[in-house]
């Protein structure tokens, strides 16, 4: 465990258990240089504890970089709850989670993620103020996330084809959850052609009816002929098996941790595919959550998400100048900001301390 934390640069790992509700959770805090660690709570039926640990460590590190690149005064953290997210016995599970979040005294702020909802965050809020994404505040972050992914797609198009327009372009969208659906809406509005898939047939029918999308089986999505592949489901889908199937020029989507391993980013590069790093493209969600913490309006959050266009262009520029893959360029952009803030001169507080 300590070797994994040291390798990824984590500050804190908290394993949590509540006997009465059966709650089993993990909270990982990666880095708090820029501010309190913020990241959602994922509720998932992991095959093993090891899988859950690996997921929360990787996701929390990604949140540090995502928040840094987005220009937010937040560090990175993440939480996972192990279990069946279809359960109806949610109140006590999420209230237990809220108590453990509260025990960290503000070092970690949680929000919704895969398998959780704004209603679940209301239960968390019964036990702690360190929660965002509440229905009565910023609400569902999906529209803002989708806006950011859309702008990253436009930036990618500008770099690859010299024009940000995707009118008439074929976008292959994997996953039609909230983010995927709103992304399809944005793309359809500007005249893009859509090829879609999801494990939920109702979501697919909705996309076909509303956006004139062409539906394909989930296993066939990678081999579809198109211009852009937009993964908006779970992570790890850019791997040894899927990369050879891709028939697109750009990979830009809303899913987290799209590269199964870092070397897969290099393989995309070697095959001439332009990759918009996931945590750059999908930062709209955390921007929406930060808007709640900072007291922004929804319009201001959307304007901030629009800045992802320029951020994505900046990543591509660094990659070109330094001759490195785009995922490495994104990491360097994040590290540059973290180091700069970390090196700011600290002024002494009142001395001596009263406690």
Summarize the structure.
Helices cover 44% and strands 15% of the residues. The protein has 355 residues and is of the alpha/beta class.
Outline? globular
- Report the span from N to C terminus: 34 Å
Tell me the total number of β-strands: 12
Percent helix, as a range, is: 40-55%
- Order of helices and strands, N to C? HEEEEHEHEHHEHEHEEEHEHHHHH
Q: In CATH terms, what is the architecture of the largest domain?
A: 3-Layer(aba) Sandwich
Report the CATH superfamily of the largest domain.
Answer: NAD(P)-binding Rossmann-like Domain
Give the SSE layout.
Blueprint: H1 2-8, E1 12-18, E2 23-31, E3 37-38, E4 41-44, H2 49-69, E5 75-82, H3 91-103, E6 108-109, H4 118-125, H5 142-161, E7 170-174, H6 178-189, E8 193-197, H7 201-211, E9 214-215, E10 228-231, E11 250-251, H8 263-270, E12 274-275, H9 278-281, H10 284-294, H11 298-306, H12 308-322, H13 326-342
Helix pairs in contact: 2-13, 3-4, 5-6, 5-10, 5-11, 5-12, 6-7, 10-11, 12-13
């Amino acid at each position: 465990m300590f070797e994994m934390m040291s390798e990824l640069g984590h500050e804190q790992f908290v394993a949590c258990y509540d006997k009465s509700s059966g709650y089993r959770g993990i909270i990982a805090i990666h880095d708090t240089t820029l501010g309190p660690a913020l990241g959602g709570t994922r509720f998932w039926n992991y095959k093993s504890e090891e899988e859950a640990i690996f997921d929360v460590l990787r996701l929390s590190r990604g949140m540090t970089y995502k928040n840094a690149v987005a220009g937010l005064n937040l560090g990175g953290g993440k939480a996972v709850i192990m279990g069946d997210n279809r359960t109806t016995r949610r109140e006590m599970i999420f209230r237990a989670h809220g108590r453990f979040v509260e025990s960290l005294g503000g070092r970690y702020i949680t929000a919704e993620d895969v398998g959780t909802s704004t209603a679940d965050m209301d239960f968390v809020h019964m036990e702690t103020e360190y929660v965002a994404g509440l229905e009565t505040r910023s609400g569902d972050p999906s529209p803002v996330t989708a806006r950011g992914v859309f702008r990253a797609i436009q930036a990618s198009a500008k770099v690859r084809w010299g024009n940000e327009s995707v009118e008439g372009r074929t976008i292959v969208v994997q996953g039609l959850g909230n983010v995927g659906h709103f992304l399809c809406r944005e793309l359809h509005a500007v005249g893009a052609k859509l090829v879609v898939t999801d494990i939920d047939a109702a979501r697919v029918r909705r996309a076909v009816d509303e956006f004139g999308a062409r539906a394909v089986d989930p296993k066939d999505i990678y081999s579809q002929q198109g211009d852009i592949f937009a993964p908006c489901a779970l992570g790890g889908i850019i791997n040894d098996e899927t990369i050879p199937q891709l028939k697109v020029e750009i990979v830009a989507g809303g899913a987290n941790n799209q590269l199964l391993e870092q070397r897969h980013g290099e393989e995309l590069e070697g095959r001439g595919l332009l990759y918009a790093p996931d945590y750059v493209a999908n930062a709209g969600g955390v921007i929406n959550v930060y808007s709640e913490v900072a007291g922004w309006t929804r319009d201001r959050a959307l304007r901030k998400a629009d800045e992802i266009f320029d951020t994505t262009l900046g990543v591509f520029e660094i990659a070109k100048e330094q001759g490195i893959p785009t995922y490495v360029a994104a990491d360097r952009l994040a590290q540059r900001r973290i180091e700069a803030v970390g090196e700011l001169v600290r002024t002494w507080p009142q001395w001596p301390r009263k406690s």
